[in-house]
Design a protein that fits this description.
The protein is an alpha/beta fold. It is 52% helix and 12% strand.
Length: 274
């Protein structure tokens, strides 16, 4: 693989745009040999492409003749059947990386006229700031060099992890794909609890947000497990223990609730997959 691969990005909305910003900021791709295809591209993305020399909606024949290392598909899943057909020849010579939720390798291959080197990536919302978590899957048709290319491109948006079976992408969706919403909900709940105790909304919000952000940063910096870190701030008979006895306690209420929630998310992800 060349040090700076060429990429054709199909769709430069929220997810595609976040990836493009990461690639350009990290000097991951070769801008002069890359292109973005999006007929409804926004002004920010237009400026970004222009300032870095990335071709925007070039003639497809030109892109095919030049060749491309990777085709990254970041369109809405419901648009795939209408959009991907015109990129069949371009995709046939490249590693295809799909960040579309619910679209199987087989379905993507069919939409691309039988392309075989197809990987799936399931990133989450924090890719927008380079702090994402992306689950990756590739069948045997994607060789080691292709997998390396996939990882290089997706690492520009945060951390990556490979799964062994395509069905496990639904599990990635339930844990890290939907996971930020679980975090936001718990933050909301803590803010509301603070208000109920008598704090102002602004003070409660600042306390809750800063506490979760700091705890996340600490966990990232530590080698200890989350359980070990929890025990380190839970003094016997103290305030934290009193709270945790309500949240989890002997019946493991929170653990059971999270398990049930994640199973529901995974089941829905399977239902939505083609």
């Amino acid at each position: 693989m060349r040090n700076n691969p060429s990429v054709s990005l199909i769709g430069a909305g929220a997810m595609g745009g976040a990836l493009l910003r990461g690639w350009l900021a990290g000097d991951v791709i070769a801008p002069s040999r890359s292109a973005v295809f999006d007929p409804a591209i926004g002004g920010e993305m237009k400026s970004l492409c222009a300032s870095h020399g990335v071709a925007l909606n070039p003639p497809l024949d030109d892109a095919i003749k030049a060749g491309v290392d990777a085709v990254v598909i970041a369109v809405k899943p419901q648009m795939a059947s209408d959009v991907l057909g015109r990129f069949t020849e371009l995709a046939s010579q490249a590693v295809v990386i799909s960040v579309m939720a619910g679209k199987s390798v087989a379905g993507i291959s069919a939409a691309l006229g039988g392309a075989v080197k197809i990987a799936r990536a399931m990133p989450n919302l924090p890719v927008a700031i380079g702090k994402g978590m992306t689950g990756l899957y590739a069948p045997e048709a994607v060789d080691d060099a292709g997998r390396e290319l996939v990882e290089v491109l997706m690492r520009a948006a945060g951390e990556t992890v490979w799964v062994n079976a395509e069905a496990e992408i639904d599990l990635v969706t339930a844990i890290s794909g939907s996971g930020p919403a679980y975090y936001f909900l718990l933050t909301e709940a803590l803010i509301e609890a603070g208000e109920a105790l008598g704090l102002s909304k602004d003070v409660a919000a600042k306390l809750a947000r800063a506490t979760f952000i700091g705890a996340g940063a600490l966990m990232d910096a530590e080698t200890r497990s989350p359980a070990q870190m929890r025990h380190s701030v839970t003094s016997p008979g103290g305030t934290t223990e009193a709270a945790l006895n309500i949240l989890d306690g002997d019946v493991k209420a929170l653990g059971r609730l999270v398990d049930e929630a994640v199973r529901a998310a995974a089941a829905r992800a399977r239902d939505l997959s083609d």
